Amino acid sequence: MLTSLRIHNVVLIDQLTIEFEKGLCALTGETGAGKSILLDSLGLALGARSESALVRKGADQASVTATFEVEKNHPSLAILQGAELAGDRELILRRSVSKDGRSRAFINDQPVSVALLREVGDTLVEVHGQFETQGLLNPSTHRNLLDEYAGIDGKLSEIHEAWKNEETKLEELKAETEKSRTEENYLRQSLEDLDGLEPKQGEEEGLASLRERLMHREQVLEGLNTAYQILSGDDDPVRKAWAALDRIADKLGEQAKEVIGALDRASSETQEAIASIQSLSTDLEQSEHSLESIDDRLFALRAQARKHECTVDELPALRDKLAAQLSRIEHADEALAAQIKKAERARKTYIQEAEKLSDVRKKAAAKLDKLVAKELPPLKLEKAKFVTDITALEQPEWGPQGMDRVRFLVATNPGSEPGALNKIASGGEMARFMLALKVVMAELGAAGSLVFDEVDSGIGGSTADAVGERLARLARDKQVLVVTHAPQVAARASHHWIVLKDGQKDMRTNVIPLGEVAERREEIARMLAGATITNEARAAADKLLETGT
Fold this sequence. Notes:
Layout: E1 2-10, E2 13-19, E3 24-28, H1 35-45, E4 61-69, H2 75-82, E5 90-98, E6 103-107, E7 110-112, H3 114-124, E8 125-128, H4 142-150, H5 155-182, H6 184-197, H7 203-215, H8 217-232, H9 237-247, H10 249-252, H11 254-286, H12 291-307, H13 315-330, H14 332-375, E9 385-392, E10 404-411, E11 419-420, H15 421-424, H16 427-440, E12 449-453, H17 461-474, E13 479-483, H18 487-491, E14 495-502, E15 508-513, H19 517-529, H20 535-548
Helix pairs in contact: 2-3, 4-14, 5-14, 6-13, 7-12, 8-11, 9-11, 14-16, 16-17, 19-20
């Protein structure tokens, strides 16, 4: 709900603050007093297009601040959260325009883009009769409004997403299969080469070490033999020392045990070293490998690693990967066929649910058209027709909300083809069509404030009274602001402001709240009689006020 509107240096307004209330709020005043300036100001705060012409003459900057109270789960708060901005039950939308036409936007004193300001503003206020692209006049909102009226949930969105996921998997599998098939010969040859080579983990390091030993074979053998002779000869100092101490062990007592143990361990390790030397010597003397065979093997392994841009140790894993790719290619037709069936099943499920949704929409549309039709005659639209047009979309346009395009169309003359509301109806007719529709769909829409401008254009008497009665009915659930010249409408208001223009050389617009019954009676009498207010006009105003309450 709009709680206040502060305007500074906008056209004829110097400084103005209006505190709004719940229910039906009427703004009245003579033509040219500045009622449209108030709506322009509100539109500016909601993100409408800014113009330097809005800046009051002699001022450097114009600014408008609109304050709203919203429920804790209001969509505007989700928008702000998505933009990583703070939001609370009170939202303050502010817009400034400099005399050179540049504008700045703020929400809760945080700078934002005009696009974000407009997105938030659209959830707070609907303006009918003034802006042709807002609210119900925007065809893109019609399907959502009908679905909300019909009580349709978002189940189809999940089904559509599941179908699209299966379609994506199918396209990815087709692309992968096509790419693999073009590489099949390469993959098969690469696998044959690796299978013939049979690379093993750690093989490169082992071959390199063996090659190093073979390159110095004679020198290594000579060294090994020398070490063997020294360690295995009769003149073994360790053994001799051990024997000498063993003979006197009983005389040394406990002190000999540690030394004899160390010599015993040294003797054992010497024997192990001798065995290792013998093994190395045997390997070198009896090796089936030659430097040439080892070089050939290393060259082949490293050539495959360069070809596949990997290390030699990664070749075994690469071989398994290539085998798996070839296996997928060989079974690609089966996998494709299975995925095609999955995608088709998901598509059929979507179509079935979308068709059910279409049926629900058509039933709701018929009910909506019938109820709106009942509202039109009292609004002096008895010859007009309201039609909820539902047409099937082509498959590329199918989406989370189904296969239907929904448009609210009107025909103002019998026999004429229904068309878009803003193309067919005049400003006053548009506002009354919107009023009729909003009365029927009173509970729907996030906007807690509705603004009607020109709703009483070209009407009077019982028709104006019917407009007032419907606005009052709508104001039971929403805050309704109406700019009106009809006394019958003003008399129905819960709150009433008069817009005045004063001053001679320096003209200014002012807005005065009419709190007393006498003040309201005088303004409604003026609306009935004109400049000269008669007692008869005051009596008629009293009667209208009695009816309005």
